[in-house]
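Fold it.
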Amino acid sequence: MTNSELLLELLLQLTVILSVCRLVSYIGKRYFGQTDVVGEMLAGIMLGPSLFGLIAPELQQWLFPKAPVIVGVTHLLPNPSMSILYTLSQIGLMIYMFLVGLELNTDLLRNRARSAGLVSIAGIISPFILGAIAAFNLYGGSGLFSPTITPWAAALYMGASMSITAFPMLARILHERGLIKTKLGTLVLAAGSLDDAIAWCLLALVLASIKSSINVAIIAIGGTLAYVLFMWFVGRRILRIFSYWTRRDGEVTIQTLTFVFIIMMLCAYYTDFIGVHAIFGAFVLGTVMPRGHFAESVHRHLEYLTTSLLVPIFFVFSGLNTQLGLLNTPQLWALTLLIIAIAVLGKGIACTLAARWSGEDWRDSMTVGALMNTRGMMELIILNIGLEQGLITPTLFTIMVIMAIVTTLMCSPLINFLVVPSKA
């Protein structure tokens, strides 16, 4: 396939991806009160083998060819068309996770440390334990985990994936409801930010622990710890120069933004090189960047391009790996319902009780539980990493994607019912 043919195919793929994502998101928001994230998640599955591939399998394979390219007699290479989509989706994820880190407000953690700590601990420990127990019981002949990983690695991964919270979506819902600066909004943002920071650290530990060599694992864990400590105690001070440049110029300039991208790519390269996913490097960089006018300006420059062009590519790439046809037995569908129940019990109900224990009334506590139970795009990120690293099989990937969609779909109707309009 020539470069010209690859470009034409990519342009057609992007046209279909953006059109379907925007259409489904519009219908979801207009008629069902759902956020754009829900629509894009569903659009990704619709463009995959679960719907598009079922209705028009030849057309779906022509547009999104997953069959590898045969080189010689024994060598198989990934289809170049899908490799380009994958690369674009990963670049989008790096920028997106950088923006997530940039949104984390450490002042929130200090202001509501006790309440946020209780909710966050409940939102981590409870789903982590339930997910780990489920992994131990499912490990073995179920065909859900890769036989190359240990039961402990499977338990760590399952617990981390159950513990994740869709922090960016949570912030977006609070902003849309006018709750972003209220007591309730501050509590949820603080708990959600702490929750996700811990969950991503757990994921980094999982990725480091699956290495076949103890030396490789030591390099991954030690390198990650050194990176986090360096960025927090040294990098944070060096990066203050961006705040100075922004005050001097009155706005983030092209030169400043270019330097941000260079540092982001270097951090992502480092964490990927030591054996932890590239997006972890971008996320940590975002957390130590200067706040205030610099952060707001960078967010404003990058948000729309990332969420309107690059993020939909990630959703569709995830949808291409989601095969509902793999759930072809009553036992697998029963397992899916069990995973959903564990997710809601471990995250939503646990956070509700923790918020009530910290002094919130029952309505606000249930609102906290509904918001913290939302997984959204963050769950898809951790699932794609698990599939890419060979931790889980496509069957478990599909089950967990369904869980992510259901818990995300639940949020908006619950918030509409629970939030008193006068509080906004």
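The chain is about 80% helix and 0% strand.
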